[in-house]
């Protein structure tokens, strides 16, 4: 079922050298610091994992997307948290940084997303402390997929986790699903609005886009999806991840 | 929706898998590799439920490699197939059965090429040709009609895939094709139904 819980993991690492931070034009981009603010995406529908049946069908309304291009990885998401028919929070955060190089995009029940995001951040940090190096993007995606596998069959919507970026591999994008699927690719969109976003993205995304064009394409895709999908909407968050740091575009208040 | 096929020739095994990774109605990835290399001479093709395929196949893959590290020699295709089946059977009546359908293809230096068919109920059969998925309904009868033990050539493989294009309502545009012979695993040309994405300058192709 298309509205079933899905998890979207976006691990990003840019392919540019660490000392040459690409400088997109200053319109609206600000650097995201490593000390991230709160990661709670706002109120969302209740989640009841395990054998307890849900009291009402949860609608996992989201449109999140990410794609690779020459400037790194662009991630975009809407900001609406819905709760069975009403908008619980119009300004939630679905793209959350897990690390300077790593972003997580979530689709599913907000509570599960927040929980698994924290679990993944904890495990990534432990790995870094134990082994002295950051886990790669693919490794973080793998870790999340393995952690979610025992919960398969329960009504869990895993949160997306981010993989740590290293400068070895370049930009990476992974999709992780709560049923254990883990795919590496160049373009993914997750959530109830994702088919609408896919079609717009497939038309517009090319490798050679400039940063502004890519941001426009991502924003356009989320906007179009939010027009058609009842459970996506409000604002659009656009993130760009490069080798050094992720950049956040000022949240646009599109009506 | 997913499709696997394997054909045993006189001194090779030809295997192909479609390369679509789908989630509900969306094709998330169309260059997904469903073959897992267990050793230099053995391939495991795995389809089925989303997370189970990779988990189970990688579990088998790592255990086969562990056997080689511990004992100094590799498992034969027959032994690997039986090991896989045993694991499927052990999990079948547990709380977490693996819902996967498999083809295991290998070349043994002593016994020659071998193709094994396994399904999610842990049946195991050594077969000259086998297929999984809805596409099997269309292609197995061609194989029944035209297969001769000594006479399967690569060109006939293309005719199988073209019958899928002609009759199968679900679009399977691209396949990964590999052959195993005494020299090991060879990648054959990836078969694409159309070069649409290539023509758009997609860097993947």
Automatic annotation (TrEMBL), chain A:
Residues 37-51 have a biased composition (Low complexity). The keyword Signal applies. The keyword Protease applies. GO terms for biological process: proteolysis involved in protein catabolic process. The active site is at residue 62. Residues 1-18 form the signal peptide. One of its GO terms (cellular component) is nucleus. Keywords: Cytoplasm, Hydrolase, Nucleus, Protease, Proteasome, Signal, Threonine protease. Residues 26-55 are annotated as: Disordered. PANTHER family: METALLOPROTEASE TLDD, PROTEASOME SUBUNIT BETA. Belongs to the peptidase T1B family. This is Proteasome subunit beta. It comes from Gadus morhua.
From TrEMBL, chain B:
Signal peptide: none annotated. InterPro entries: Ntn_hydrolases_N, Proteasome_beta2, Proteasome_bsu_CS, Proteasome_sua/b, Proteasome_suB-type. It comes from the Eukaryota. GO terms for biological process: proteasomal protein catabolic process. One of its GO terms (cellular component) is nucleus. The lineage of its organism: Eukaryota, Metazoa, Chordata, Craniata, Vertebrata. Belongs to the peptidase T1B family. It comes from Gadus morhua. Its main location: cytoplasm. Component of the proteasome complex. It is found in: Cytoplasm; Nucleus. This is Proteasome subunit beta. Component of the proteasome, a multicatalytic proteinase complex which is characterized by its ability to cleave peptides with Arg, Phe, Tyr, Leu, and Glu adjacent to the leaving group at neutral or slightly basic pH. The proteasome has an ATP-dependent proteolytic activity. CDD domains: proteasome_beta_type_2 (cd03758). Keywords: Cytoplasm, Nucleus, Proteasome. Pfam families: Proteasome.
């Amino acid at each position: 079922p298309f509205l079933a819980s899905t998890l979207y993991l976006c691990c990003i690492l840019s392919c540019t050298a660490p000392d040459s931070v690409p400088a997109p034009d200053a319109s609206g981009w600000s650097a995201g610091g490593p000390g991230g603010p709160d990661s709670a995406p706002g109120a969302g529908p209740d989640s009841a994992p395990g054998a307890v049946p849900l009291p009402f069908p949860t609608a996992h309304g989201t449109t999140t997307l990410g794609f690779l291009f020459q400037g790194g990885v662009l991630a975009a998401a809407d900001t609406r948290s819905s709760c069975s028919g009403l908008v619980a929070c119009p300004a939630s955060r679905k793209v959350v940084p897990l690390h300077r190089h790593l972003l997580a995009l979530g689709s599913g029940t907000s509570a599960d997303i927040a929980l698994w995001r924290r679990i993944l951040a904890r495990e990534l940090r432990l790995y870094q402390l134990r082994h002295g190096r950051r886990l790669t993007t693919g490794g973080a995606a793998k870790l999340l997929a393995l952690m979610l596998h025992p919960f398969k069959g329960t009504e869990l919507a895993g949160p997306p986790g981010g993989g740590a970026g290293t400068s070895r591999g370049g930009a990476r994008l992974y999709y992780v699903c709560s049923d254990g699927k883990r795919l590496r690719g160049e373009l993914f969109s997750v959530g109830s609005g994702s088919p609408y976003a896919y079609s717009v993205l497939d038309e517009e995304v090319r490798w050679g886009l400039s940063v502004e064009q890519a941001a426009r394409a991502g924003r356009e895709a989320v906007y179009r999806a939010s027009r058609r999908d009842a459970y996506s909407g409000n604002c659009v968050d656009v993130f760009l991840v490069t080798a050094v740091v992720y950049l956040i575009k000022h949240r646009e208040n599109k009506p | 929706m997913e499709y696997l096929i394997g054909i045993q020739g006189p001194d090779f095994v030809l295997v192909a898998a479609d390369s679509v990774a789908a989630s509900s109605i969306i094709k998330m990835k169309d260059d997904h590799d469903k073959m897992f290399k267990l050793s230099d001479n053995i391939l495991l093709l795995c389809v089925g439920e989303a997370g189970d395929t990779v988990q189970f196949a990688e579990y088998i893959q790592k255990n086969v490699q562990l056997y080689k590290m511990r004992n100094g020699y590799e498992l034969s295709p027959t032994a690997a197939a039986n090991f896989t089946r045993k694991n499927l059977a052990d999990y079948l009546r547990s709380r977490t059965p693996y819902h996967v359908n498999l083809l295991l293809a290998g070349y043994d230096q002593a016994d020659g090429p071998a193709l094994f068919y396994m399904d999610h109920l842990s049946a195991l059969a050594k077969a000259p040709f086998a297929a999984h998925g809805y596409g099997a309904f269309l292609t197995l009868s061609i194989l029944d009609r035209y297969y001769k033990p000594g006479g399967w050539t690569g060109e006939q493989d293309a005719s199988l895939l073209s019958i899928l294009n002609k009759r199968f309502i679900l679009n399977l545009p691209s396949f990964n094709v590999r052959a195993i012979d005494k020299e090991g695993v060879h990648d054959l040309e990836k078969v694409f139904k159309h070069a649409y994405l290539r023509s758009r300058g997609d860097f993947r192709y």
